[in-house]
Amino acid sequence: MRIAVVDDERPARSELKHQLLELLPDAQIDEGDSGSRALEMAGEAHYDLFFLDINLGDINGTVLVNALKNMQPHMKLVFVTAYSEYAVKAFELEVEDYIMKPFDKKRLEKMLKKCEIKRVRKPSESSRRIAINTDGKTIFKEVGDIVYIETYNRGCMIHTLEKDYFEGKSIGDFEKRLCEFGFFRSQKSFLVNLNKVKELFLWKNNSFAIKMEGYEKEILPVGREKIKVLRQLLGG
């Protein structure tokens, strides 16, 4: 059995690896310390189990789920988190399970047994809609209709395939809500739907930018620290 443990905290990786080897002494365990490295690992080797920390330094673990599933459909994903509220996310994203920090050996053993059984879960349709409070009313939109979101006047402008909406929430709030649906913070002021990216290109001063479906005249800059992860998420 080959296992991946991805966590940006070395002590957490070491402790989880130690406990796993006590339960699975013949397992081969590889370590990674970032979301970017997680994608590289999934492209380099086949894994039976993949332990993924949610709060990675470069990219939220929930953003990586779909990419990792597409790369290795039969791999079992397990969230690693210090926050119990992410238990709900684990089931919404249909990962196998989650484990809490600090690690408990009995809980880990129970989780390993659970992962031996393939679960079939029906996706939640209601979670794929988002409420937008704008102009004194609430509008419900499919998250797939959102092209990108940008900061605007102490709030955010939500650009959809039909029209634009303003809401007085921070872009960080939208990132938490939408990252599980393939949205990526390409720059501090922009949150983009990866499925709507039409072009990634070299821009001014050796930086990169993207163009989005339906908004081809708009140029969205990409943060220099984000370009490597963005390329990997887009399959480039």
Distance, first to last CA? 29 Å
* Poorly predicted regions: 117-123
Total number of beta strands: 15
Shape: globular
Q: How is the biggest beta sheet arranged?
A: 5 strands, parallel
DSSP strand (E) fraction? 25-35%
Count of all domains: 2
Strand order of the largest sheet: 2-1-3-4-5
Structural class designation: alpha/beta
Contiguous helical run count: 7
What is the level 1 CATH name of the largest domain?
Alpha Beta
Order of helices and strands: EHEHEHEHEHEEEEEHEEEEEH
Description:
The structure is a single chain. The chain is α/β, with parallel strands linked by helices and 236 residues long. It folds into 2 domains: 2-114, Rossmann fold, CATH 3.40.50.2300; 126-233, Beta Barrel (OB fold (Dihydrolipoamide Acetyltransferase, E2P)). The chain contains 7 helices and 15 strands. Strands 2-1-3-4-5 form a 5-stranded parallel beta sheet, with helices on both faces. It has a 5-stranded antiparallel beta sheet with strand order 10-9-8-12-11, covered by helices on one side. A 3-stranded antiparallel beta sheet has the order 13-14-15, with no helix packed on it. The radius of gyration is 19 Å and the shape is globular. The chain starts with a strand and ends with a helix. The relative contact order is 0.11. The model is unreliable at 117-123 (pLDDT under 50).
